[in-house]
Amino acid sequence: MTAIVNIFLKEGVLDPQGKAIHHALDAMDFEGVEDVRMGKQIVLKLTSTNKDDAMKEVTKMAEDILANTVIEDYTIELI
Fold first, then answer.
1. Which neighbouring-strand residues pair with 42?
2. Model confidence band, residue 50 (pLDDT cutoffs 50, 70, 90)
C-alpha cells in the first residue's frame, strides 16, 4: 500500500514561495492564475494491508514529524 501525504501552509500563513511562483507566472504572461500556494508531497510505501491501521499510522506520522501542524495542514491518500 502507498500513502501520499500532501502538506501545505494553512490559510492566513504567508507563503513567500507561492508569491514568487505567482510573480514568475505573471512575468511569463500566464493569465488566469489567481493565487499560488506552495506545498510538499511525501510518498510512503507501506507494508500494511489494512487501510484503517495504515491511516492511523500515517496520521500519527504526519502529526508527529511530517507536518508542522501549527502552520501546516495535510491530507492523506491511501492507494
1. 5
2. very high
What CATH number does the domain containing 66 carry? 3.30.1280.10
The domain total for the chain is 1
Rounded-to-5 percentages of helix, strand, coil across the chain: 35, 30, 35
Domain of residue 15, residue span: 2-78
Whose CA is closest to 44, among 71, 8, 22, 77? 77
With b meaning 16 or more CB within 10 Å and e meaning fewer, what string describes 19-33?
eeebeeeeeeeeeee
Q: What is residue 36's predicted lDDT score, i.e. its pLDDT?
A: 96
